[in-house]
What does this fold into?
Amino acid sequence: MSAVVDALPLLVAAWLILAGLYGIVATRDLQHTVLCTSLVHAGAWLLLVGVGHTEGATAPVIDEDVGAGAALADPLVQALAVTDIVVGVAVTALLLACVVRIKRRYDTLDPADLDVLRG
Amino acid sequence: MGEGAGLLPLLVAIPLLGAALTRVPGVHATRRAPDVVAIAAAAATTAIGAVVTVRAAAGPLVHHLGDWGPVDGLPVGIPFVADPLAAGFVTLTSALVTAVFVHFAAAGARGGGLTHVLTALLLAAANGFLLAGDLFTMFVFLELMGITVYAITAGKTDDPAALPAAVNMAVTSTIGAVLVLSGVGLLHGRLGTPNLAAAGAALPEEAWGVGLALAVGMVVTGLAVKAGLVPFHFAHADLHTATTVQHAGLFGAVLLPLALYGIARIEVVALGGGDDPASPVALALLVGGAVTAVVAGIMSLCQNHLKRLLAFSSVSHLGIAAAGLGLAAPEATAAVALYVLGHAPVKLGLLLLAGLVLHRWGHLQVGELSGRGARLPVVVALLALGGLALAGLPPSGLYAGKAALSGAAEDAGRYAVVPVLYAAAVLTGAAALRHVVHLVTGWPVAADPHGKVAEDHPEPEDHQPAAFVWLPAVLIVAGVVVPLLPGTETSVARAAGMFHDRAAYVAAVLDRAPPARAAGPDAPDVWGASSLATGLLAGVAAVLGGLVAARWRGRRRPGRLGAPVRALRGLHTAHVGDYTAWLTAGAAVLVWWVVLSGRGAG
It folds into this structure.
């Protein structure tokens, strides 16, 4: 049972990443592409938090109730996840701005219609 | 530790400060002040980088940020580490960014006021990536670089291809980043540290097991996506085509090799495979690099658009460098360092020349430019010189690097690599020389139904700042004469030796007693008669190839012989879904290769 619980976040993370990739490959709408990119990112965050989790561990904040010797979740992967959430927000904002301008300039959101570079 | 370690944070802080200062109202409002601030910041970074490079010759310099040094030999904080190779790369990057800022000043380009900020940020991030001593910090700086790259390209509003290219790059590169991040997380979960030196100590010597191999595979694949190895090169080639000439030069000259540097650093320090040609990462680099060099070389020769030609040329030369690192020997690393040192200024110079062509004639399509060379003979001469340098004509840095690389490949028993290297170089050289031939002779250019570059044509201008000519001239000549400078070969050999000295790196970062210095490789001998003859032959082959390609008009009915090339070109669709499909397939192959190879099986 415990092995399943341990592996579950990783499996869900892999599912999120693969679903996001499939969405980017198959979609005909750039807004959807941006959302799927966020989905891929979310998979990575879940994977990181899953890596840092151990059975029975509490949040890595040490005070009177939680001594220095207590079992704590790994704060480093949480820092990684927070950093990448910031990166993800920046990329999403930039991509959405690009999508708005692509719509204005080319009047399409279908990547197949953006025939600007070939060969 | 060593004298001068305190300088390391400045290599990141000064460009950051410069970026901020260009936006201070008093500076921003004036015409010249942002240029002056940006040039001063980049030049100061270059100077400090040079000082650090010299000081690091005695041993790796380590600076623990915020004085969070190791406790009982265990890393606690974030170290910045500079060995001569990293510091030399920092100096090269800073010098090229300085040249770009000088070019911006001459062009009067303000790019909505953000060009300077983003370029300075790019320099800070690149330097941080080069110096970072742990995987997490490498990832953060890699992402900072990525975001500035997308923003720079998305902000180039006068090019119709820029926005789609920026979106494609942002999406595919983000997937690469997710791979790196997931790999770093898994690696940390297994080894308990993101620190390169400590991870190297914690990694089992023999078999890694599936979990670790998966983590390693993901980190390496993510960095390969950032480096643009085939099949991850699509978005890179489009991006270099669509962005400003200055940035396309920077990206091709230093940003692509930067990701390779990351792979090599991880391979040497954390994975301990720096001297093992049979390690999965080395083999992946060797095969991937050779394929990339040839595929991108062919794509380069097919292009009628000068900037797109140079974009594929950058990818091809990156492939040569990757194949060199795949030889996994200090001699090969020295050769690659020499190669990058020779390639970087030539590539930036050629792209600045493309900028001049666009400025004066309003076109980059060779069909529009054919026969106009007599009006700007200096451009033709420099383009020819650059093309010959790309082909590896002695004494260019690319020649010296390739000669040294051939020697290393023969030492390693990988003879098949040598003709691949020369073929790729001749293809990219011929691609550039073909345009020179058209410029001079005015031969008609056959229509190209397989290629398209949407572009706006600016009004041609007669006004021509002097820097538009002398700056590319200086850069291209620098790339040609660099191996002739006394001490270049011995310096890169020593730097490569220290890059491969894993014990010294680990001891410096973890505050252990420094081990006996490992002897570095001998300076590569690149002036042997056979090397010179091969180099000359490559130059002649590139000239002939350029002539033949210029004369080639295609056949009315497409032949069977050209079918593979047409199919290859048909894959470059600028469709983000297609590119992601290729990326996913390539990543799956690469990750499983690492997992299934000997080290993952245990």
